[in-house]
Design brief:
5-stranded antiparallel sheet, disordered C terminus, alpha+beta, 29% strand
């Protein structure tokens, strides 16, 4: 599972929600300036999701579960997957 925090103004938010729905991601938090999305799936699914989010400003990408770590650990995803421009 990954958590992705995005800068989300009113204009970008609807497109972000559309992308999240395509990947069956769950929007877990919305503020006037940000949106946090939860995505589960294999690395290819995460990579594809991240590719579509490139036009938006990503302020954080974290995973909550990964082999070799305790459940609940929050680890920057960029240490686990190759994600450019984070």
């Amino acid at each position: 599972m990954v958590l992705i925090k995005l800068k989300a103004d009113e204009n970008a938010r609807s497109r972000m929600i559309e992308i999240a729905n395509i990947f069956r991601a769950k929007i877990i938090e919305v503020t006037p300036e940000t949106m946090t999305v939860e995505l589960t799936g294999d690395p290819n699914k995460v990579q594809g999701f991240m590719e579509l989010l490139k036009p938006f400003e990503i302020s954080g990408v974290y995973t909550v579960w990964r082999d070799g770590h305790r459940k609940g650990d929050i680890i920057p995803l960029s240490r686990q997957l190759r994600i450019d421009n984070l």
